[in-house]
Automatic annotation (TrEMBL):
InterPro entries on file: MobA-like_NTP_Trfase, Molybde_CF_guanTrfase, Nucleotide-diphossugar_trans
Superkingdom of this protein's organism: Bacteria
Species of the source: Kribbella antibiotica
Domain MobA-like NTP transferase, residue spans: 5-154
Name assigned to this protein: Molybdenum cofactor guanylyltransferase
Phylogenetic placement of the source organism: Bacteria, Bacillati, Actinomycetota, Actinomycetes, Propionibacteriales
Length: 179
């Protein structure tokens, strides 16, 4: 099934000491490029955040105002592309794979979306595939997307979740790389 990808990459990375998470290197590849490789089959890929060098061409967007959170970033990214499914990923998911994304897209079925759970069983809303129409309606219901939580945005959506796996693990601290 055709899908677009929106990669949220505009956070401040305060728990990493202000280091740009997107540019952290693991096994010779930046986090951002690892996520972009996983989303290689997207019709349109939009990275929301400052423009950086990536291994392939992508579209760029910026939340308004910059730094106003992942929901504002998601809204900015969603304005590009038109595939019926949108895979939403944060740039700090270095273990997500193309196979994970294919499973998410194929498992939506009659649900609004399908997401990954991290190794500890936590739902990862920024590691999920959503029906574009469901996300657009959720954004309309929410109103102003600035400084809103993704949990609140998706609270009324019918989502299915994967079994816990490393693929859903994000990196918020340096210790997360050891996990």
């Amino acid at each position: 099934m055709e899908f677009d990808a929106v990669v949220v990459a505009g956070g401040g990375s305060t728990r990493l000491g202000g280091v740009d998470k997107a540019l952290v290197v693991l096994d010779g590849v930046t986090f951002l490029d690892r996520v972009l490789r996983a989303a290689d089959h997207a019709t349109t890929t939009v990275v929301v955040g400052p423009v950086r060098t990536t291994y392939r061409e992508v579209e760029w967007a910026q939340e308004d105002p910059p730094g106003s959170g992942p929901v504002a970033g998601l809204a900015a990214g969603l304005a590009q592309g038109n595939a019926p499914i949108v895979v939403v990923l944060s740039c700090d998911l270095p273990w997500v794979t193309a196979e994970d994304i294919a499973r998410l897209v194929s498992s939506i079925d009659t649900h609004d979306g399908s997401g990954l759970r991290d190794s500890d069983g936590r739902d990862q809303w920024l590691a999920a595939a959503y029906k574009r129409s469901s996300l657009e309606h959720a954004l309309q219901r929410l109103g102003d997307p600035r400084d809103q939580s993704v949990r609140r945005l998706t609270s009324d959506l019918d989502l299915v979740w994967s079994e816990p796996s490393r693929s859903g693990d994000d990196v918020d601290t340096w210790a997360d790389l050891d996990g």
